[in-house]
Give the backbone structure.
Amino acid sequence: MEDKKRTHYLLPYVLLTLSSLFWAGNWVTGRALRDAFGPLALSFWRWFIAAAVLAPFVWPAARAQWPVIRRHWKPVATLSLCSVVLFQSFVYVGLRSTTAINAVLLNSCIPLAIMGCAWVVDRERATLRQMLGMALSFAGILVIVARGDVARLADIGFNSGDFWILAAMPVWAMYSVLLKRKPAELSGMTLVFILSVMGLFVLAPAYVVEMLWIPQRVPALEAVAGVVYIGLFASVAALACWNAGVARVGANIAGFTVHLLPLFGTLLAIFFLGESLHMFHVVGFAGILAGVALATLSRRKNGG
């Protein structure tokens, strides 16, 4: 009986940990596949696989919700544009020229980007403590972007990949803020399927245009396996684990596990890609996390 209770208690945390591991694998795999697929091609095949896998299970529900989708197509299309099209494409563009370690560490500033977008969209005012947290995290971002050398900030020629990763952060933040405006009838895997299908209608022509600039070649078996991993595990399985974990422990507790993503991403990048962890990564990541803690602890204390 004790073992069953312990398993029941630990299961949601195992699921949440798996979701962070699967998402970290997406960033590392995206970096590994930079020469095999263009960023838009990778986005297209990722969501094509996810939609194809989900279709047999959620199609009846999606079809039944068609009147809701048609009535609220603008907010749903906006969510699809932010999440399926822009965020992932920006990330895959950035991973072509920056390291996976840099990318996953910069990803940790998403909570602050969400706070900024909440102010822009909903006029949620930031406290002084939250603004100090943002400033501290921004300093951590600068340390990582500059590779620990502040003089590099004056050099406009340094790694553009970091900027693409940073540009993706407010896009995901906007998705997160606008998510509460989705129709109440749409949720879970049905919503993921609908967003995927809508996004594919935008990604397909963009993928065709990309072919004019990036030569297409038949991918190796390892590259195909990488895309299948992204489509199955980083898209479908990760979200299923996340939803199940959040349902059991709540969003606030689940939110703390998101910071496992840069940890897993760093370890995977070192093991599979041979990347190196430097002191500026540690210092910058510490600054980002300290800023996030300062800002979000303030929000929880105020009941936000």
